[in-house]
Each structure stands twice: as structure tokens, then as C-alpha cells.
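Protocol step 6 of 9: fold each sequence in the batch and record its C-alpha cells directly after the sequence line. For illustration, a two-sequence batch is reproduced in full.

Sequence one:
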Amino acid sequence: MHPNSSFLVGLIGSGIAASRTPPMHEAAADAAGIRYLYKKIDLTELKLGVEALPELLTAAKRMGFDGLNVTHPCKQAILPLLDALSSDAEALGAVNTVVIRNGRTKGHNTDWFGFAENFRRNMQGAPLGRAVQFGAGGAGAAVAFALMKLGVQELTIIDVDSAKAESVADSLSSRFEKGRLKVGQDVAAAVAAADGIVNATPIGMDKYPGTPLPTALLRADLWVAEIVYFPLETALLRAARALGCRTVDGSGMAIFQGTEAFRLFTGISPDPDVFFATFASQGG
């Protein structure tokens, strides 16, 4: 257990006013019997850009913060500012959790863990021969890393910007057996050969309606995983469920990246049910 019984943590990012993360962490701390204050450091409200990161990091260290979560647009910009990186953060080239101890900062990435844990809990026994991932943006590398760790034998990454897909495949392929990661162009052929598909694009969010692939390509024996959680039932999941596919929504990824960050900050493994209950009570 961490020597503290009280913690000061923050979230740095743009447009985070409605983030569900602070109440989830604080509720989990209450349940664990520790004091925990989670502050939002919203670049939009502060009228700041990523160039303010060095100053914000220094301020957090001076003010005795125990850690920071980091979200868009700071996950990559913060890398060179940290004293150390976990192997996961290094592999992914992105940090979403910074632990501050004795004035030193260490960057971690719990996004991949969030996806993997959510999948493990909801997709026991799902076939992992071939999977297709749509999207190679911010979350794409973390999701691909998670799918590799889960044991997918062949992962095809498809993005409208094929250079992005190439970049994710290249950055991760040195860490896994040759031939397990590839980039695809032909959506119909890739899905026809797949055991499951993952949406790692923002398509399906209220702001970006639609589906990342034509729903006519879905079939009942596919599993379908989603990272969007606003709304919880995207058009993709609705179509997949109507066919009888095994599905998993995006809420668990958001929750389990949070439980792992909480553990890194405090040394205490929180009760995921408290995170789920708080997440659900935030509405929307």
C-alpha cells in the first residue's frame, strides 16, 4: 500500500468538462476508505494549448499531486517531458497516466489494459484467429496492442488514412511475431475471413453518426467490440445484436483504464463495480 492515505490527482486535456473520470475515481476512493481529490485541468477553459504542458507538469509536482491522467490532445506531447516511461507507454508512444513520486514522473498507458480487461470479462472463449480493427487514430494503437496481448493470431487494421494504419502496424510489429499484424484495404474480404471486428474509430458517437463498415457485411458468427461509449449502443452494436452477434460496448474500456490508473496512483485495486455504478449514474 502507498504510504499516503490521501491523494491529489488531476486530469489534463481539452474539453473535459463533462468527463466521467473524476467522479468514478472519487467514489472508488470513498469505497476504499481513502481521501482522494480529483481535479480537472481543462485546457479549453484555461485557454491553453499543449505548449503549456511543461508548466502544468511543474506546477503539479510543486503542489504535491500524486498523479495525472492525460487525455486528448496531450497523450503524445507529454512523452518527452517525463522522467521515465513504462514499457507499455513506450511501445504505444502515448501516455494517459502519469505517476508522480518524490518529484519524479513516470508515464504509463492503461488504455490498452482497459480494452483487454473489458474483452476478457465479456468475451470468454471468443475465437481469436483473425480480427479486423477499424481505426488507427488515437485509440488505435492501444486497441491493436490489446488485441495482440489477448492472443489474436492475425490482426488486420483498416483506416481511411492507410498511412495511419501502416504507422500503427509498423510501430507494434517489432514487439509481436512476424505476420500477425497487417494493413487491409478490402473491407469485405477482411470481414469475410474474420472471427471478430473492433471499432476503434469515433464513428458511432453522437457527433459522428454511422457505422465504420457497411452493416450488410456483419454475420451472426462474428463478435463485435466497440470503444465508443457515448452512446452506449452505437448503430454498429445495434445491427450486430439484431443478428445475434456476441458484442461488447465501450464502457468497460473507459472503466478499466480508470481502475488501473487508480491502482497505479494509490497502490490499491479499486472495486470495478463502484466505477460501473458511478459511470452509469453520470447519464447520457
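Sequence two, same batch, same settings:
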Amino acid sequence: MNFQVTVLKILVSYPGGVAPLVDLKRDMAILVTSGSDWGERTKRLAACVPNLNIFSQGLVERENGAWRITDKGREVLQSMEASPVFEQPISMIPLGEVDTQAAAPRPPAQRAKRRRERRDRRREARERARAAS
């Protein structure tokens, strides 16, 4: 797993791109223990930007116990995800298991809607957890 890519992916999912360090650590722990898929995904993303350093390159800023992704950080993450290096090679997809409907990329508006929905669900879960404690 690539720590720096994971930080960018987590921060971009939070409202305003700002996450308290406690929430960031919790989300990172969830992703690290979620299986090898996440580690492979972050390695592919990191391969798109060699020598990635989120702090010295100004992609993430630390402020008052929270980390915030900058506009430059968002741009770098988008370029990593749009890079052809990130795409899974066709040779890795077993023949006969290709679903053309699932393989078609979603329109940007649909991806943005799903991202907002996931972000809202996470926010609601955090609020419920805070209220319960």
C-alpha cells in the first residue's frame, strides 16, 4: 500500500478535503485491512507519479490537528487516476468473464454522484459514532 496515495484518496472524500487526524488514521486502518486490492490499486496510482511527496510538493497541508488536500493535490490525484498506467492490463482479465456493461466507464456526473453519496454515508456514520460516545 502506498501511504501517500491513500492519504490523498481519503482526504478527497471528505467535505472540503479536510479530515481530522483521528478520522484519517481510522480510515487508513480500514483500507489497510480491507485486502490486497487496495494495496495494488495504490501501487498502480503511485507508479504514475514517481517520487511523490504530498507535503513537500504542496499536495496536503497540516492545520490544527487536521490535514487538508490542496487544489494541486486534487489535480495530481485526478491525473493519476486518468493515467493509462492505472488501467488494468487486458491480459489480466480472464476470457469469458468480461462484462461489457460493467467495463464501460461511468460518466463523470455519475461518478461524482456516487462519490458524494459515499462521502455523505461516511459523514453520517461519523456523526452517529460521535453521538453514541
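Proceed to step 7 once all outputs are recorded. Observation for sequence two: The chain has two domains: 1-88, 100-133.
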